[in-house]
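Example 347, ligand zinc ion.
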Amino acid sequence: MDWGILQGQDAAVESLRRDISSGRVGGAYIFFGPEGVGKATAAGLFARALECEGEAPPCGACPACEKVGRGVHPDVITVRPEKDKSTGQDRKTIGVGPIREQVLQRAHQRPQEGRRLVFIVDNAHTVTLPAFNSLLKTLEEPSPDTVLIIVTPNLHALPPTVVSRCRRLRFRSLNRAEQREILSAVLGEGEADMDRLISLSLGRLGQAFDADSRALAEQRESALEFLEGVSEPPGKADEAALLTMAAAVAGRGGSARRDVLGFLEMILGLLRDILALEVAPDVLEPWNADVDKALRAIGSRWGVSGLIQALDRVRFAARDVGEINTNPSLTLESLVISLRGTVGAGG
Ligand SMILES: [Zn+2]
């Protein structure tokens, strides 16, 4: 894998290559831009290039490139959240503990075997403010061998004190043709499969790469069914069936919260498509173009202002489940009721 995989990100790639070839590598970088457009891939490639012992870094063939690629290079550290002691799962935020243990305690040491010490903080919008503050000193007095790469979809979620101390690289959103090209280069699949994968992952390539496309297809199917049910006109909707469906989503397996979040994200993506088809069908291409008939039918029953309200309600529900830890099945149940109130809502 080399820089060529980052199609459509020429500006960012050019800037990184220039830093490497001129030897003027910064102490800290922020890669920001929409989800799934190559930021994490770029961080991995940059780390490889920083450690590479070959002639055209990242050469992809030297032992250093190989180790970074397998995630076993001792001087390339991807900061991980702590495990929650009660559930054994990763915490949703990265606090002071992991930053102290994984970054600060090592940041002033020499690299063990590589040329530099590279720290990658992915999903940096989940790093807590105190944890960022603890990083500040390192950012102010970087040791010459240390490179910190902060990856985030949302630059504004980071403290300005951190942002101002880093080189910032913007990754732009990719159009469908670019996404298709990248996917087929990596996966080598047929055109029809590509479009389907892009749709199912709502355009976030990162997800498309490791998508279990059958599971995603099933999830979309139930999300679509859910929206069809919710958008039935008053008197025709089978609310009991909708509540049963909501309960089924929430009750699936042992990972209810993650399932419900995935389901809500899928609903958000479909609603966005429905709204796009209602507002500007000739301009905006829906991600889920293969089911556009069904989406149009839902949109015509819902109406534009109702759809906008509905998007907000679903976004709030996703936030409740993801960040405030409300009970997933109760949240879904009340979402059914509140969405019903937005169907055909005027004004
Ligand atoms: Zn190499």
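Summary: The CA atoms of residues 57 and 78 lie 20 Å apart.
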